[in-house]
Amino acid sequence: MNIIFLGPPGAGKGTQAQRICEALGIPQISTGDILRRAIKEETPTGLKAKAYIDAGKLVPDEVVIDIVRDRLDQEDCKAGYILDGFPRTVPQAEALADFARIDAVVDLDVADENLVQRLSGRRVCLNCGATYHVSTMKSDCCNHCGQALVQRDDDKPETVLSRLKVYHEQTAPLVSYYQDKNLLHVIDGAQQKEVIFDAILNTLGVKQ
Ligand code: ADP
Ligand code: ZN
After folding, report:
1. Is the minimum distance from the CB of 64 to ligand 1 under 6 angstroms?
2. Distances in Å between the alpha carbon of 79 and those of 20, 94, 103?
3. pTM of this prediction?
4. Of the bound ligands, which one is closest to the alpha carbon of residue 132?
5. Is residue 118 annotated as part of the catalytic site, yes or no?
6. I need a surface site. Which of 37, 100, 128, 157 has the fewest CB within 10 A?
7. Does 71 qualify as catalytic in the annotation?
8. From residue 95, how far is each of 38, 68, 75, 168, 180 by CA, in Å?
């Protein structure tokens, strides 16, 4: 199955995508993780992307489209994948339609007031992409790979508001875009993690 995870920043896309991918044995393709790794490694793409990300803006469409097109070409994507954080604009969705066949779009729905709180308390592992919240963190290191957890620069309060604005202006139109194509599955992202996980498997028609 080729699946898209849609939803505002902080809705839990990354967390749920990681778990659903483990359950289904397919790769998670997070454009945010790929870009952050590129920044850390100071690749040409990373250098180009950094200013946009730090400002809470979107990286230009052509940059992320090229990243995703190359990634989906790899062998491990043949049996399916989850796109986490892509597409984020209508032009990205239109480009994707030219090189991929999407089976389902999962939209995690969370109100803005909850998002601000989630994002400002979020800590991430820059090595494997796992995310945590300060209110429930038991250690300063990642449970999965042991690397130190850090606050993303773009999770600082000023940038969070700009990211939410960008979401409403540029990404939210994809909800009706995929609804019109009969691919949309809306899940209440304010529920408990386990409940959301089961609801996603259920709506995708996957038996555990
Ligand atoms: P979140 O969903 O929490 O905002 P991501 O890790 O998905 O976090 O994205 C972080 C940042 O990376 C975005 O704010 C944006 O600058 C950039 N980015 C990620 N994916 C895309 C995309 N598909 N198009 C443009 N920019 C992107
Ligand atoms: Zn990790």
Report:
1. yes
2. 14, 22, 12
3. 0.91
4. 2
5. no
6. 157
7. no
8. 22, 10, 21, 20, 17
DSSP 170: I
Query: Pick the catalytic residue: 13, 19, 36, 123?
Result: 13
SS3 100: coil
What does each of the 208 residues of the chain score in pLDDT, given as a tens digit? 999 999 999 999 999 999 999 999 999 999 999 999 999 999 999 999 999 999 899 999 999 999 999 999 999 999 999 999 999 999 999 999 999 999 999 999 999 989 999 999 999 998 888 899 999 999 999 999 999 999 988 998 889 999 999 999 999 999 999 999 999 999 999 999 999 999 999 999 987 6
129 pocket-lining for ligand 1 (C-beta < 6 Å): no
Buried b (16+ CB within 10 A) or exposed e, 105-125: bbbbebeeeebbebbebbbbb
